[in-house]
Task: structure prediction
Amino acid sequence: MDDGQRIYMAGSGGMLGEAFHRVFGDHHELKCTDIDVNEPWLSLLDFRDFDAYRADVLAFRPDFLFHLGAHTSLEYCENHSDEAYRTNTLSVEHAVHIANELGIPLLYISTAGIFDGAQETYDDWDEPNPLGHYARSKLMGERFVAANCRQHLVCRAGWMMGSGPAKDKKFIQKLMMQLKDGARELRIVDDKLGTPTYTMDFARNVELLLGKRLWGVYNMVCSGVTSRLEVAEYLVKALALDNDVTITPVSSDYFRQEYFAPRPPSERLITAKLDMRDLNIMRDWRVCLDEYLAEYYAGYLGDMAPAESA
Result:
């Protein structure tokens, strides 16, 4: 991408928004919006309101439109299906209409969760089969973008990690919170496979693809297919807590009351297109997790783990 281009980032108050702001902010002019104005660089915009969304984007006259936000809680989406489609599907259609009106490229973030897990791994061309309302609403957004926006980039993320304790609502932060609260045993499911995705690597790979203007749908995850159990074991060891914390494998049924939404047994994505185009700069998930802990969690656990152990 050329320096100085104008980018409108909708729904950028979360994990991805933090990374995209860091990666793109130094070289481009950004307009970052969200319904949760939790940073000084954010302004208020609800992208579910088409008229407000359109007016704000048109007033900024961007060179690119990034649609980053979504309802990502599977349980919330199961219990509030209308809101899931309003946020994860209809608002994406809004973005497509706006991008087409301006004749600019659109970035949309999809998910490994659109697959049913019947296969162990999925490449960019495997056929999705969503299991619940979250996955279905995200897939419908992906399909609308691909079918109706000529210059589009759809990037599928895996198990997201990034942005630190303030914004990370995913697996790593949940484990870190348990450890911070003094947990000496972590019960981890042993029947869920996937691929972590570090937000900073993700944002940098998006920047590379946009510069090449090779539009389409891409799996974009860290290298090294793994499992929830393996990630937890690596995390505890990386924190030098493997002699103090016990990891107990359990089945998903153990958490069925809290996590009742259907989840695929495997969300392992293969970055076939990125690899074939020689445009894959996503690093191994272990390297990324080490960096993430060092940059965002130094001192987080207090006396439980020395900062240098991260």
Remarks:
- The chain has ten helices and 15 strands.
- The mean pLDDT is 95.
- The first helix runs from residue 15 to 24.
